[in-house]
Amino acid sequence: MDDMVTGGYSALNLPFSPEAEQSVLGAVLLDSSCLDRVAEILPRPEYFYQTNNSLIYSTMLEMFTIAQPVDFVTVLEKLKGTPGFDEASGKTYLLQLAQLVPSISNVESYARIVRDKYDVRTLITTSRDIIEEASEGSADAATLLDSAEQRIFDIRRGKNMQGLQRIDEIIVQTFDRLDLLNSPDADLYKGVPTGIKELDDTITGLNRSDFILLGARPGMGKTSFALNIARHAAVKANKKIAFFSLEMSKEQLASRLLSTEAMVGGTKLRT
Asked: Is residue 23 classed exposed, middle or buried when 0-12, 13-18 and 19+ CB atoms within 10 A define those classes?
């Protein structure tokens, strides 16, 4: 199997770790259960930079998905049906993979190296694309900035994605959090109070990862209610607050805050 590389840029410019890629594949060949742990970190074959490694991993994932056994013999047999696959060199390369892996127990660390190199390569190619688009001069600055921000955000979103977790790991994390809630610094880990006792008693304040919807008919005071909560969190709890509104300007929101703080009616304040 030829040691080819993919991508439109020179291998000298795009970083990758052949040792990490080979170690991941070698660990799976020696122990197919490694694929259970690796598949969450490397869900797609394109995370591998070298073409031969990407092809082997793609074959492994395909076999894993349909519950076929994954080992040296089965993977080699599956690869024989791939167009352009050279059986002699491919067999030799698979044997080398199984011999090169330093330790099966470290397969997740090898997979994270592969993933990190992929993220850096993606950042490099995305940056070059942004430069090319900006150099063309066909789009205005606002469009270019929006496009650049979205592309960088997509890279980070993909990096932060996490697959399934075992319940025993989550239970340990939950116990750790409960210990913190009973520690002298408990206030640092409790929800941010809304300033409305009955509401805080029900939802235990504004907690991390909470997504709270406030619903009512038009004109019932939803914005004022939300502003009061934001104001309490900022002034009393000393938290940084961001308030977004699609129907009111920043001046209108500021006027409502002043109206509440000064206890002056909104109409009287405007006139």
From this structure: buried
Average pLDDT over residues 18-31: 95
With CA atoms as reference, report the closest residue to 55 among 115, 108, 3. 3
Q: Considering the chain, what percentage of its residues have pLDDT values greater than 90?
A: 42
pLDDT in tens, 109-129: 999 999 999 999 999 999 998
- Would you place residue 24 in the very low, low, confident or very high pLDDT band (cuts 50, 70, 90)? very high
Q: In degrees, to the nearest 5, what angle opens at C-alpha 68 toward C-alphas 84 and 103?
A: 85
Task: Give me the torsion for CA of 134, 137, 140, 142, rounded to 10°.
Answer: 10
Instruction: Say whether 62 is catalytic.
Output: no
- State the CB neighbour count (10 A cutoff) for residue 102: 12
- For residue 231, CA distances in Å to 55, 162, 196, 246, 263 come to 56, 34, 12, 19, 14
CA–CA separation, 154 vs 148, rounded Å?
Answer: 10
C-alpha distances in angstroms, 46 versus 56, 134, 142? Answer: 11, 27, 32
Residue 9's pLDDT is: 47
Out of 132, 136, 198, 247, the active site residue is: 247
182 — pLDDT class (breaks 50, 70, 90): confident
- Collapse the DSSP code of 241 into the 3-class scheme (helix H, G, I; strand E, B; otherwise coil) and give the result: coil
196: tokens are 């409305």
**What does 48-87 look like in DSSP terms, one character per residue?**
--BHHHHHHHHHHHHHHHTT---SHHHHHHHHTTSTT--H
More reliable by pLDDT, 59 or 157? 59
* 261: nearest Cα among 227, 237, 238: 227
Q: Looking up tokens 């607050």, which residue turns up?
A: 241
